[in-house]
Every structure is written in C-alpha cells, then in structure tokens.
Design a protein that fits this description.
With 481 residues, this protein is of the alpha/beta class. Helix 2 runs antiparallel to helix 11, helix 5 packs across helix 6 and helix 11 packs across helix 14. It binds pyridoxal-5'-phosphate.
Length: 481
Amino acid sequence: MDLIFEKSVPGKKLTILPECDVPEVEFDPAFCRSKKLNLPEVSETEISRHYSRLADRSHGVNDGFYPLGSCTMKYNPKVNEDAAGLDELTDIHPLQPVSSVQGWLEIFDTAEKYLREITGMDAVSFQPAAGAHGEFTGIQLIKAYHTANNDTKRNKIIVPDSAHGTNPASGSMCGYEVVSVPSSEEGGIDLEQLAAAVGDDTAGLMLTNPNTLGIFDRNILKITEIIHNAGGLCYYDGANLNAVMGIVRPGDMGFDVMHMNLHKTFSTPHGGGGPGSGPVACKDFLAGFLPGIRIGKTDAGKYDIEAAPDTIGSVGLFYGNALVVVKALSYLLTLGREGVPEAAKNAVLNANYMKAKLEKVYTVPYDKGCMHEFVISAVDIKKETGITALDIAKSLIDYGIHPPTIYFPLIVHEALMFEPTETETREELDKAVEVLLKIHEEAYSNPDKLHSAPHNAVIGRPDEVTAARKPVVRFDFGAEE
Ligand SMILES: *Cc1c(COP(=O)(O)O)cnc(C)c1O
C-alpha cells in the first residue's frame, strides 16, 4: 500500500482555509523555515480512502476479540469520546487565567477524588502521559523521600521476576540497581527470598497484584511489611486495575505510591500509541513531592492551582493528557459505585471461564483460579509437534482474533497470556475457545498450516526484531529535503 507521500502530486490542492480577512504580518525570518514544508498534496477523496484503507488493515476492539494480556483491550463506550469532544473542553488554552477554567479544574478535582477512593491513596497527579512514565515519576517520589530523610545509601529497587518489563526499566532509569526476586510455585513472591533480598540499601519494591500471571498474591500484607520494616517504600504497578477496582485497594495492601493507566482500565482506546494517561497516586507523606500542578480551593470556594511544596518538578506539560482524564471521569460516572466492582468481577469471571475451557487441552502452568487474565504454555505442544506460542498466536489472526500477549511473563516458557476483559459476551468467548481448540487439534493433524499462518492477513510474518530495533518512521524525501 502506498504511503500518503507517495500518492502526493505537486500542485494538487485541497483548500480548506477561508480567504485571509486580517492584515498579513511579516515574521522575523529568524523564526521562519528556510525550506518549504513537505506536505502530501492529495485530494480529499484520496485522504479519506487512504485512512479508511489503513483502518481496514488494522485490528481494534471494534473489529473483533482482542485478548492482549496485561493491556486490557476492552470496549470503550463512545459516550466517553463524546464527552472528551465537547467544544467547551477543547477550545481552551492551558495558560488561560485560572478563573476562566474553573469547570476544567472541577473535572480534575472530581476525577482525583474518585481515583483516590478506588486506590486508597491520598493525592493524585495527572501529569504522567503513560504507565511507564507514571512508574518513573513514582520512583522519583520514593527517591525524593529518601533524599529528604538524608537516607542516601538506599540504591536498590526490588522487582519480582514476573514483573512487566517497564518496572526494572523505570527503577534503572531512576539510577537504582534492580534486584530480581523469584516467584514461588504458586506464582506469588517467594517470601524467604524477598526477606533475604531486603536490607538497609533497599529503596523500595515494585509490584503488581494481581501479577502478570493473573494471580493475586495472598501474602501481600506480609510483603509490604517486609519492605517497610527494612525502611523501603512500596510501589504498586496499577497499569491494569481491571480485576481489583472497587474491590481491593493498593492503599490498603500497604502500598505508598502507584500509577494507573487510564488508557487501560478507564476507557481510552490505546494501541497504536494514542494519547494515554498514567496518573501517579500516593499517600499523604509523599504528596509534597508530586509533580506538576496541584489543585486546591481558595477561601472563596474557587479552584486554584499551585505546585506541591517539595515538588520533583514537572514530568510533562501542564495538566497532562487532559482529555483522557475526561474519558475516565465519564466512564466512572457512567458505571458508578456499583458498576465499577461489577466490571471487575465480570473481567475475572470471563478469564476464569475461558481458562477452565482451555485447560482441558492446553497446559496451564499456574492452574489455581485466576484474576482478570491467565497464562497458558505451549511447551508441551512444542515438544510433541514443533508448534510454538508464536504459531498459535499467528493462527488466531486468520480467525479475526487478535493474538494474546506472547512470550510474557518471562518465567513461563512459550507463554500465551489472555485477558478477555469484561466487555466480551459469553458467545464471543465460546467462539474464541472453539478456535483455540481447533488450532490445538491442527497442531497435531496439520502443523504446516500453523507454521505458515497467518494465511488471510495483509502481511504474513514481518521481521519483528528489525521492525522494533530499526523502525522506519520517517519518509525519505531524497534530494528535495
Ligand atoms: C501496560 C503496562 C505498563 C506500561 O504502561 P504504558 O502505558 O504502556 O507505558 C506497566 N505495567 C503493566 C503491568 C502494564 O500492563
């Protein structure tokens, strides 16, 4: 398929700007481009068809089942998009006087109140733009806390071996040495190994619970106590709150600081790198370090903004990706106090339903009840037929199903990690199970078909390593440039 630049024909114009009806101004040449901006010159029809074709070639929640584990690809109600598209919210500038953006500040204040309630934390900053960004910010709060206490020998962050890859990366980016602790046979943290790993050099722990195996660690209070007794702080990776929202709270599990991904749990379409939001929430004793703008009220009852007293500084622009916060608030108001835990329970029910049907033929390494996601392993199939997790994932594409997360968590060989989410119907789950059982059977009867899958997709098996390591994200205009 041609790129929009390759469709461009010089001089083909699509004039959408009205005639200029104000005096033209000469800019200081120092601020002007020296060369013409290379924009594609195409007709409106061509643009429209180009983007429709691109959309046809991708797979989103609106196209079919999308059980990408850890990523919560749930249906996002369109009403939330409508709310975020209101002119009153978009035709506005972040540098407007505070007196003229009182409604916006109320949105942030209300969203913060609900998220505090859901997380059991005391304060929230919306500035981080994604989960990993929230982790970085949260670990900076932990660092600022130890520094403020003159406790600077703490140079280690403990991360379990089932963690999302962003956790060790965030710890490391904040200058910490990352210590990995192994999981127990049940899939939780091994308490003895944890106790052996902590010391007066422990800055903190990063943990997600339920973890990436979909298992809720029942020892969570002991775990956070071990860290606190050693003088460390506990960070909760709340990227995916889909199993626990409205039911248990990280703040009650002993965590001091966390982030959540509004673009996973709280209804913003993601994938393809759209705008995200990874707000950081913390307990009172860390709130003084929060980044960006804090919202308060004046004596006259008006909203006002100021920086936190010991702020680590800004980690993003202004209020963060504000329209994502609108969608999250719209979602929370729609579901309400009863709907939020009900969504979580249905997410858990759907995952357990699928797992129970699949474990009849597939190997499930951690086979107790799961939370919102579960992991199966293709080790046995691979041994018997040569079919890998990748082959199974690619085969699913031919049935209009997005592959699950594969080869993660790292502690499960040939892992396939499914997260069906609460927004799938039983019929859809049954269909997916049927497809997976058929693929299992074909692994034995017709392995060549699976080795060469997908057969009905626009591309077969791209070189993913080169695509990730050497992405070509820029059009080469050649000499014209
Ligand atoms: C998605 C995810 C992250 C990272 O979030 P991004 O918004 O992609 O940066 C971190 N931890 C877990 C458990 C996740 O699922």
